[in-house]
Design brief:
This protein is an alpha+beta fold. It contains 6 helices and 12 strands. α1 runs antiparallel to α4 (239-264). The longest helix is centred in the last third of the chain and has 37 residues, at 303-339. Keywords: Receptor.
């Protein structure tokens, strides 16, 4: 009995783990679930792509999203969860093989500056839906803005002083040649904050907010795709499926546990090992009797049954005719005797 109960517990834990594993499947690109509201956000509808050959043009097929820079002095081109549609020709401080992955850029003169590479994983900062692009062109260096530092004058002295001075000069040369890694490795990044556009007639849009040190660019996007819906992923089990699994486990526990009890405690054998055997046997007899009644009722309307009925009726009529003749003869005989 203990082994049976152990197997039932194992079956229950395996079923629950399967349900949990089904619900923990990775999401599709450019989708996210809010950790606070549990709502599902799909931003794939904001991504713009080139139309295929032969397809009709739709709204947004003219190119990527555009945002005016106003006082910044340049306009921006951005795409969501994918590279920009436009072909780039001269991106500054970026390998040519990465040009096709640029998701945001701006132009100044003949030069193009990338402000972020493709990223298809939106995230939440508290209740804010954020899309972050990194790895753009190099940020402008601020070393030229620093005031030059005067070096100490050379002191004439003995050889020891000269050696010390040489070491100091070598150290100062090393410090001069050593680049500031934190400045040279910084690249332009883009942060897009997405807000819900509740107006059903409102169109999706993106606007430029600010730029920090010509290195970090902030945008604000509004769209109905940022409103979120109830999470109903087809890859996971629905609430009905979870309830069905739990009900199946309960039925298995009932039958297996009841059979173990009837066999070990009540010492039953055969079908009597089933829990509540009398009830199930009564239900079976009820349905079997109903089946017999229905089949016998339907058999009366069969063609062979109707022919047999006519034969029976004919025999009965002939029998009644003979009885009538005998009765008439008996009456005639009685009349004759009465006359005599």
């Amino acid at each position: 009995m203990k082994s049976a109960l152990t197997s039932l517990l194992v079956l229950l834990s395996c079923s629950l783990s399967c349900v949990k594993a089904a619900s923990d499947k990775p999401l599709k690109p450019c989708t996210v679930v809010s950790p606070t509201t549990e709502r599902f956000f799909d931003l794939n509808g904001l991504r713009r792509t080139l139309p295929k050959e032969g397809d009709k043009k739709k709204d947004g097929d003219e190119g990527s999203w555009h945002a005016k820079g106003y006082d910044y002095g340049a306009n921006f081109t951005v795409n969501f969860c994918g590279p920009v549609v436009e072909e780039l020709s001269d991106v500054q401080d970026l390998d040519k093989k990465l040009w096709r992955n640029v998701s945001a850029f701006y132009e100044r003169g003949d030069r193009q500056y990338a402000i972020g590479l493709e990223n298809s994983e939106p995230i939440f900062r508290g209740k804010k839906l954020i899309l972050n692009y990194t790895g753009g062109s190099l940020c402008p260096s601020t070393s030229s803005k620093r005031s030059p530092v005067e070096l100490p004058r050379e002191i004439i002295g003995d050889d020891d002083d000269d050696d010390d001075k040489k070491h100091e000069d070598q150290d100062s040369d090393k410090n001069k040649k050593k680049p500031s890694s934190d400045k040279s490795e910084r690249r332009k990044t883009t942060i897009i904050s997405l807000l819900c556009e509740s107006d059903p007639l409102g169109k999706s849009s993106i606007s430029f907010v600010a730029a920090v040190d010509d290195c970090t660019y902030f945008f604000e996007g509004r769209s109905r795709f940022a409103c979120g819906i109830v999470h109903a992923d087809t890859q996971t089990l629905s609430p009905g499926g979870v309830f069905g699994v739990i009900a199946l486990i309960a039925v298995l526990v009932y039958f297996v546990g009841g059979c173990v009890y009837q066999r070990t405690v009540m010492h039953q054998r055969g079908w009597r090992q089933l829990p509540n055997y009398a009830m199930w046997a009564g239900i079976w007899r009820f349905f079997s009797d109903m089946f017999i009644i229905l089949t016998s009722s339907c058999a009366r309307f069969m063609p062979s049954r109707r022919g047999y009925s006519r034969v029976t009726l004919g025999a009965d009529s002939r029998g009644r005719g003979r009885r009538d003749e005998s009765e008439n003869r008996l009456i005639d005989n009685l009349d004759e005797e009465w006359d005599d």
